[in-house]
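Thread: 4-hydroxy-3-methylbut-2-en-1-yl diphosphate synthase (Flavodoxin), structure

OP (GT): Posting the sequence first so everyone is looking at the same thing. Length is 414 residues per the record. Can we get the structure tokens written out before standup tomorrow? I want them in the notebook alongside the other entries.
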Amino acid sequence: MLELIEKATTARSKTHRVMVGHVPIGGGNPIVVQSMTDTDTADIEKTTDQVKLLADAGSEIVRITVNNDHAAKAVPEIAKRLADLGCNVLLVGDFHFIGHRLLRDHPECTESLAKFRINPGNVGRGKRHDENFTAFIEIARDLGKPVRIGVNAGSLDQELLVQKMDENSRRANPMSGDDVEREALVESAIASASAAVDVGLAETSMIISCKVSRLGQMVEAYKTLSSLTNIPLHLGLTEAGMGQKGIVATTAALSVLLYGGIGDTIRSSLTPEVGGDRSKEVTLCQDILQALGIRTFRPSVTACPGCGRTTSTLFRELASDIQKQIDINLPDWKHRYPGSESLKVAVMGCVVNGPGESRAADIGISLPGSGESPRAPVFVDGERDRLLSGPTIAEEFIGMVNEYVDHRWGAKTG
């Protein structure tokens, strides 16, 4: 496991480092978690509130739509309000169709953004495409702003795709339509990056993405990209979907690539329920990185799934209570106990795997299972510390967890 993680880290260190505001992306730096608002950017209050929600959840960069003059005019005020709230998250402008004009006409907007995103598939056709793309890149170059060249299957340059399809039809053994589209996506990304370099934008000021909604196609596209360039890559399975389907698809796609050392920044494009919590896309990215051992964001609770030996619900209730307590304490712990995000707690349900898992955690409890008296040993730093019994086991163990955090990490804050 450690060897694979080290291999992945080594692969990522070969990418260029791009500075987005104060956040380094690529070059072996920590993988950055991004998110995007779904508000009308012209609605300053709603957009400010949602950006802060995402930032508070842990998003290090938040992308906002800049699709018209009203949105562009709102960006500076949004940035000001966030600063007044003490929210220093980096804002990225998502530009489509008329991005070159909006950047030119709204200099205050450009100053408030840490990075620009351009989709080369929707800036025009033929000569107009080249002129608009060049104008956009020239503005970014002159302002010293990094650019993400974001290619999407849903808005792929149709002239390029038709050309690739025609070439494929003349092959002795034609590829599938998905494979042709994948080739076109990669070619569009690489050609656009090359064109940006020709205009004078350094590779150290670029990030590339190649996002599609089909998992296999997305994974293969990024594998090809990573073999062709050292420009940092932003990963995402776009239009991942709702609920469990979206979570599973995103986790599968990102994990395959991240574990192979591909990817420098990520976003999960979940479709939230109406009125749902937008920040779930942030916590999913964090959970993926933490599960892979790449980054740590919050204490983890290991709990067994239950079986015929655990007919009592006590361990499930305790695991739930511990998780809720950690979630409540986390904002305070981040401030008072730096490093406590690495805390590992085990709440096990019976004597088979319980003692071993509890010893492996920082602090763990091994409940007896079914048909036994409620007496449970607690292990601290791998050693048996005490035996809890009776109806107050849950309250006593939660108290021990709080004491452990204070004892281990409290001294670091003086």
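GT: Both are above now. Quick notes for whoever picks this up: Confidence is low (pLDDT under 50) at residues 1-5. The first helix runs from residue 2 to 12.
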